[in-house]
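User: two proteins, same treatment. go.

Assistant:
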Amino acid sequence: MSIACPHCGETDQSGQFCDSCGKKLEKTCRACSASNRPNARFCANCGTPFETTDKTPAKPDGDGAQQKQVTILFADICGSTELVSRMDAEDANHALGSVVGVIVEALVRFGGVVNRQMGDGVMALFGAPVAIEDHAARACFAALAALEAVGQMGDRTLPIRIGISSGPVILRRTGRDEEDYDVAGITAHIAARLEQQAEPLTVLLSPETANLVTGIAEVESVGRIALKGIAEPLPVFRLLSATDRPSWMVRSGARVLSTFVGRDEELAQLAAALERASTGHAQAVALVADAGMGKSRLLHEFLDGLPQGAWHAIRVETTAQSTAIPYFLITALLREFVGCSQDDSTAEVAARLPTVLASLGLDAAFDTTPLLAHLDREVDDVAFGTIDHAQRNLRLVRSLRPILQRYADLHPLILVVEDYHWLDASSIEVLTELFTGLDGARIALLITTRPERRPGWPLHGQQTGNAGITGMLEIDLKHLAADHADRILKGLIGDSDELAPLRAHIISRADGTPLFLEEFGRSLHESGALANGPPPLESIVIPASVQSILAARIDRLSSHHRRILQIAAVIGRDVQLPLLAAVTDMRELNLAQEIGVLRAAGFLVEINQRNGLVHSFSHALTQSVAYDTLLRSVRRGLHGRVLRALEALNPDSRDSILDRLAHHAIQAEAWPEVARYALAAGERASRRSALTEARAYLESAIAALDRLPPGSATITQGIDARLSLRGVLILMNDTAALQEHLKEADKLADRAGDRLNLARIYISRGAILSHSGDLPGATELSRTALDIMTAGNDSLGIVSATFALAQALWYSGDFREAREVLMANVGHARGDAGQQRSTATFVLPSVVFFCFVARVLSDLGDNAAAFAAIKEAGAIADKQGHTFDQLLVNTYEGSLLLSSGQRERSVAVLEQVLGAAQTNKVEWHFPMIAALLGSAYVDDGRHADARALLERGAAFADRSRHIGKRLLCCPPLVRALAEGPEGDPKAAKSFASLTLREATTRGFRPVVVRTQLALAHVHALEGEPERAQEALRDAATLAEKLGLLREELEARERLSSLLRQHGQTKPAFSEMQAASGLRMRLAALSGER
């Protein structure tokens, strides 16, 4: 059968060597570097599949470039230019070539791909073209090996220096050979600059590399170094040494272990297996899970929890480098048997072996030849070197088994093999045979491995066909439940409620994988992201260590299956087969078979949903990493294909998939489709109170519309999008962005001569100006808007403009005019238009209209009419069932209860509103609730609670540039500051003075009245009756002018009492008469209804 050469690509090869390039025809496994026969479909050593299918999905657009997390190493010979100038050209070439050759050999030995070789130096990639999870560690091992190898050459005139950096790059193939790759990105630049900065015989590391090799390498800081082309000096580290250690030992040795949770069932299974082993029934147990699931941690906790002295444990710990070492297990076992460390030579192990064997009662007739041979010792049995592989393994097993049995006879024995998946094939063969015939021994074999490298022994309870153990118990570790994951994160980043959204976000991404949770937590701490509170959730990136683990899994797929997985990642977390088939240009039948491979590898799971069968990514992070390997240009093209496929597959039901259509249109930068779908999706998200999503969609729609050719339809859509965004931004408390969008909308409407849309914009701008303190501007814009809407007989616009104008008038104290405007247009609010949601208001227009009617009437003393209005608003809100409508109604109801003297009921209602607002994240409403509830707390004598709530409300309003809302909090805050055990009247007077000055200047006359009333309390506390009287007179005069009957009544009654206390009976009587008249007017208002 003819094949293609894997080195040069020449086809029709049938011999053992390529007749074009001369290289041996064999397949090298990407995962373990083992050699395989040319026609192999799977690696004989680790089981990784080779590419065998010609059913190739349509390739993504682009030149085959991809994004990778790699480590780059630059090495060169110091002073080579000077050396060459003093030598004959041929001699110089030979000298430099010899050193470079030694460097290359060291780099390749540890998995480096030497993609650039100069006369005096090299560049090598670790983790590319095939991702490997320990790329940084391998680069460090290779660098130290290169230094040692060059040092052993004995030529001190040719010292080398090395620079290493880790990070993202764009990888491109430049030729047919396996080393023909080039990279682009800052990572390569930093590595090259570090090499130039390194002293002879030293290795410099970037901070990213140093971080990735924590626990593996010993490094020392050399401070910050300014590198050409890098804006800020970079923290740089010198590599001193590195030790090849299992990943578990690295993590547990380098940092404090996280909380151990969620493994009670697995611990019980291990305990049961050990119980059986203790009775002389040897057991074999495999803990099976992907990287990061906590296999080694579970084993550690289990062994640590055993009674002291009950079991003797022998541990064999493997690493990725073990795969290339034949019979690694044998040497490691012998080291354990004789008590030698990894640093002891094999000669020392061999020297101790006879003593250990004698202590076990194994006499001189014991066959030590296989053991000594594997310790590289000379043996007397010359024939041993000539026997075949199977006979050699049999001799080894016959020598090792008695040692294990004698150990188990003396003491129950646990043999631990960590990371079994890294064992070489010969070790696995010996281990499998070794445990045949051990059924009568008190021994338990506990191994940890990954799903792709299960031992393949008969499972526990199956018939084995021999006298050995009764089968292997495989324990598949499940992902941690959300509550267990949260416990881990609480221990890592904190358990405060403030961090709860951040923990939930990480949990949703880490999918219950303990290591990923730890790495997210560690990354947040080391980056300082938590220093100023929780960071924005969108800023949380996948740690480089996690990316490397997942990328290594993905790269073990064939390129064919990897492309399918990447296209699926572009589609989303859940993938329907017809959609994937349309995007890949493959037949569904063929594609289903390929999806089966991805399911078997653990990348996808099959789920039955209402709309049919879907294939879902097993882990959100796997989807993210598969997606991130694609270049932005490639992603953009694929999103466009997904968009077109979705439209074709859903011609009559696009409304049901608006979010998906908008997402893919945005990512494809298909601007007409973005304008259409994102605007619709944003408005729908806004109706559902999904504010973050609504804002993102609407801002995307606006950006798309700005890119399209100007036209009347485009301008109208641009205005609509900005007005829709208005309500969202108010709820999100982003006044600055809101004002900017409304200015743009104003320009568009003016350019188009669109009077009605201009009026809608004026309504929104008027409302903002009211809150921000420009009451004349708010009144003018709102009145203009109402005139335009009235002229156009636009009922919905009339309702919204009326509210905007009434709000400005209410803030300024023009209550009578506000009532007149509201009553004149109440019919529009009761009509059909009042039941429509408007882009100009974020609550139902009729609800906010009647709430404001209630507020104005209450301020004018007509509580009976006010309660009727709030009842009408409540009925509409209950019918609609919208959260914001109901919150608004309940807030105004609490205000009416407070003004009518029902303080206890008012507090209960307002506290419930405050809780609901916090639960639903309705931040815009907080200052108003704080002003009302804080006032009630003051009257209740809860001064500390009032002070805290009112200060929070005022600060929040200030941050939002809502001066009007801040001023509402000030009058009750004056009293809260002055009264109570911790009261400070002087501070209260100073604060009142500032409030009066600002409220008077800006025209917030009701605030002036209420602040004067509060200030009178403070003056009375301070024993300043004349000043208290003056404040009360001013309050009464202004309240009378504004029609604030209750405030005027309070001012005159308190003034009468003060005058009487100080012997001024005549003016006291006069004030009391005026107060009596006010009481009669208030009673009459109540009695009219």
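Protein 2:
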Amino acid sequence: MTGAVTGVDLDWALLGKERGQRDDYQVLCSSSARLRPAALERIIQHFSPGSPAGERPGELDALPWITFTAATSGDTPYVGVAIREWPAQPSTAVDATNRVVVPTRFFCLPLDDFRQRLGSFAALYETVRDVTVSDLEQVYRTQGERPLHLPVPDWPDRRAGTPARPALRYLRGAIAAAGLALDGPITLHAVPELAGQPARIAFLDLVAALLPAGAEGVLAAGTWVDVTTSHRVRVAFGQQLGGSGRQVDPLAPPRFDLVDPSGPPALSGGSGASGGSGASGGSGAAGSADGLGTSAGWGPRYAALLTYLLDGDQPADVAWVPAPGDREPDGRRLRVLLGWLASDTVPRSFSRPWEIFRALAEAAARDLDGRVAAGEAGVESIRRHLDALPGLADPAGILVPRLIPHARPADLARVARHWTPALARPVADLAVQLCVAGGREYGHLAPHLQGAPAAMSAAMVSGLLTPWPGDTSPPADAITLATDIIREHGGPAGQGEVWAPVRDRLALDPVGTLQVLVQYFDTRGTPGLLELVEWLAAAGRPPSEAVLRPFRVLLAGQGQEAVGYPDLAAVGAQAGIGERALQTLARLAAWQGWAAALVPALEDWLRAEADQAPFSTARRRSWTPILDDLSPNRRAEERQRLGELIGEPRPRRGLLRRSPGAAAGDPAGDPAGDPAGDPDAGPPRPAAGTRVVLGAGWVTPAPAPPPGSGDGRGIWELARLYTSATGDDGLVLFGDGGGRIAVCGRTWCCHTGYQRFLESGASLADLCLQAQAAAGTRPSRLPLVTADQHRIAQDVDAFGFGPVAVVAAALLDGPVSVVGAPATLSAGQRLAFVEAVLALLPVGLLAGMTVATATGDPSPFRLAFTTRAGTSGRRPRLIVHWGDLPEATQPTTGYGRDYFRRLLAARALFRDTAGLVHAMSIWRDALDFDQADDLFEVLTDANPAFLSPLTAGRSLEKARGRRQTVLAGRFGRESDEADALATLLSDGTMADLQDAVTFADRLAVFERLDPALARLIRTAGKDAARVARVHQGALLLVYHSGGGDAIQAALRELPEAAVGLIVQLTRAGVFASLGAPDNGWLSWLTPVTGPSPALQVFQTALAGPDNVVPDLRVLVPFGDDALLAALQIVRYRERPRSSGRLARLLTLLQAVRPDLVAAFLRTGAAGIAAGSGTPGLAGTGHAAAGLTGSIG
């Protein structure tokens, strides 16, 4: 701050050790006025920058290390400075281990005092710099625990708009640092130009000045931190670690790529950039109360906004190129920008970064709005402002309303990029202006609505359906545009929560409902009309149910129902639209070929109308062509009778029916050509076995003519592609990218809504088989049942968790062919395998999945059963050999390798197979196999299956630090390393499990892993669940890394551990190495005194005589996973030829584990049928009874 020298009171503390002290660092003396000594010590330790290796004069990490802290005590935020420095006499300042004691001087004061008296980190440091350790000891001896009162030198406030040089030179780097700090801690490169402490502090002040003043209470910064240790300093200089971490070079800051404005811009490598923010998500990411988002990606937005405001009207991505060193920023703009930030003293938190971004964006928007109002800027300035920034540049809805009188279609795309709920009313007015005043149809606006948020589309529809002042109904073109937006951007396709208000509003207004249906039919015909009707009917509101019923009868009734006179009376009674809606129903009946379902009721309605008053000439003329179309092939007397009712002067001759294709592009006379609709999203997933009904559309792949437009045309094109490659007995399953999912045979294709299918929870196999059974009649509604996820999980385990997981993982890297499946493997069994594979992937990948159950040409399909083992085509294919059970090589590279390992880890430590299947079914967002971003997310804890169900323990941070220490080559006690591994395995996330693997690899390199894992295998404790996770994790590491003598001894000592390892090996599909003669796992696990009873069961299963059945009763205490492992080993043994042992084992299990037996039968395991029909071995009945008694 500027002005005369003043004084300030500071709380203080000295952290260190007494000479010869054994204990850890502690407060040796301190004040005790506003903060107690314990609180001061907590602040110092919380923001510790790490332990220095020495004084290191002249080096980048030379002492002192200066850390500026931000902490709150009670309701008072404090700003402090901790100075960690080399002692004046290092030869005598040593502890009990003869290590030099590095003291830390600490000073702090309330945030309000800091702002009023100091105003910068530099002023704070200059105030306390000369107060030495000896001074503090002297103060304590003479004044006790009183605070220090120190003079404050004249120093410029960092927010005054004139930052101290040379920091101004690094303005671009400071902008990058301030922005990226919103998303997490960052490390600043210690460039030689910033070697001195004053220069570094000046740079940190500049970073702080580019954040709102309200963030001063949470911003911790430092002149050096040891980045190899865990620290809590938000912005600090530190050493470089290659490509790891989030680092910023002040002289060569990264460039923020804004080419994808739909989401927070990602940080790409620029000159000197060695890390990235990894931003992702849409511009209106959900999660916060105001819908502005929750997590990473706000830093690049904020940096881009700062840059734009500093450089004026240049696009942010152009202006962001680092400026030459001699270029000075516009001083006025800098002062204005720093003034906005200085005035924003509302307390901010880095856990809510969107609030920091929003505050600055609002300030900029209000400033621009004021300049437009004053005539200093125009509408084009607003457009440039919105175009230049990556999103959410108008969070309060200040700028968009000024575009309405000058609306252009491209403004819709601008609003979509910057969408927030505050723009709901302005975007509705914008849509009305474009449609009504501008005379534009949907076709003109559609390109600008791609990617628009559902809430924006819903807001536009609400505005379009609102009558203008003085009118009773909206203009026809507004209704048309509204229905098109409903059809293409929301409503029937899902997003029920966003679209429910629009639907409910229509459902309460029969006139509005009919206006939408009539206008839709007039302009679009039947494609999608049933979807729209079902969506409106799902609201369940009586005012609209009566007028919707005749539409539903004609669209979905298949001629089995008839429209009644009360239905038509309800429609006709709606003022202003009733009769036109009746004429629409007559045209619809003619187009659908269900005139017989309408004519009797229509005749009654026409008679009732004629009884009241004769039809006028104009009214009669409107009905005549409609009645001609309704009855071209019916009795002439019927047509004459209808004509007489409307007052026609003479009998009419039947005219040729007009082809609906001329108006709407539909296949003439083929109701199956129209895609059927999906009802609106229903309640949460029904219980397994619940009956559900899905809308079904049908197309004939070839040579029938294609549907005219909409979903039907796209499905037809894809069906032609895929069915041309499949056999007569094969089925094809595919998604079109998120709108529809289809099942096809050679001559038919059935499709239904993708989202509705997912929300129904229906079985994928049931969809395929039911569509195949209904292909002859092609109903518009397909009855299905909700999938039993436990049954699917049992199928996964019966096929073999490892092989199924291998195929699922391999699909992430490319296509997969299954070869060698016998002809006896039915379509149902093939579909069960497909469903098992897809159950181990997020269900959202189904959106673009392509599957064939039998094909001679696998090239169009991601997963195909085929007779061709070749890998021809543009992409190599993984070959899965079906030798009674699927066999494939585990992926060794790419996404597949990581995904397979994570599946095994999640199965071992997080949840059982049924839990994995359920978790995968939660992620319903459409995902793309060919999008790297989607595949990357599938590997992270964005995938619910990889989200740990555990609560992190307090020791987890310590374990992570121990791992980091070991990776740096510094080892500790064996027990500490084992404890750290145990914590990472039992209490951590999927990322911690991955860290445990790298931790174990490093220990193995230095031959320290075996004793650690042996200790974990022998772990015991009161928390049984945690102990079990430790055991499972240790065995998982043994599977990954192998084992030495210490591990072998522990496994031989504990039969339950040996069984657990066999379970993990068989779950991973490792069979060949179980019984290898020289180094097989079973022989390695067998003590010199002979195998345990449990190991004997597995040895008998793998290598016993054909006439000896393993005694599964021995495995009962080890759980169902052990039983499953034994069965899989027997099945593996019987691949070359069946001895009937598997069948006999399943016969024994039938009474006590029927679900497990049924799963094996569904997989088509070889030899089951033959074995089950043969007499049992001697003693089989006794064994069965004993097994029942043991398991049941």
